[in-house]
# Entry
Amino acid sequence: DHQKLDKRLEHYGLKEFIVKGDGNCQFRAISDQLYNDQSHHASVRATTIAQMRNNRDRYAAFVEAPENGGFDAYLRDMSRDSAWGDHVTLQAAADAFGVPMCVITSYKDNFVIEIQPDRVKRNDRALWISFWSEVHYNSLYPIESSKFKNVHVANGRSRSSGRQYIQSRVRISCNVHELRIPMLSASTIALQMIVNYSRGHA
# Structure
């Protein structure tokens, strides 16, 4: 229910920056939050997969892997362009880049997911993304952000009519207590539940 998500975002003063829905949307949203540019999604995916491959004991048990090939097959499938990201790749990305994430979802209950990295490398910001459940991820910014100036959305693609927004990074903390919204921790959502979205989110 995207209307439910829209109302939540409006209430907290946030707005979706729409990323392309080509199967890479989770990695595009993370790329946009990290670099103010969704086009680095392939690099974000590669870094996330490397994190999982190099720390397989942290992730393998929480993935329902393909019958033939196990976790290695999961990594191989997830490495492909347009393979839909899942809750486990969100955790791995947070770990790889050393940044916390807040995901505001369209779930009925506990609609904010806080994902904490195993080690914080950057303490100046958190990544904020939205999740229209089982459909699409987008990047989130305050409504008044310069990110939305001169931006037009056409055919599901965000286009700038002028300069790129590389220098205008938004830094907002993942303070769920300040927002007064319910949340589920990463340990509850991402790493205590076996989640298989290897065929996952557009």
Summary: Confidence is low (pLDDT under 50) at residues 153-173, 176-202. The helical segments are 2-11, 25-35, 41-54, 56-59, 70-78, 87-97, 176-179, 186-189.
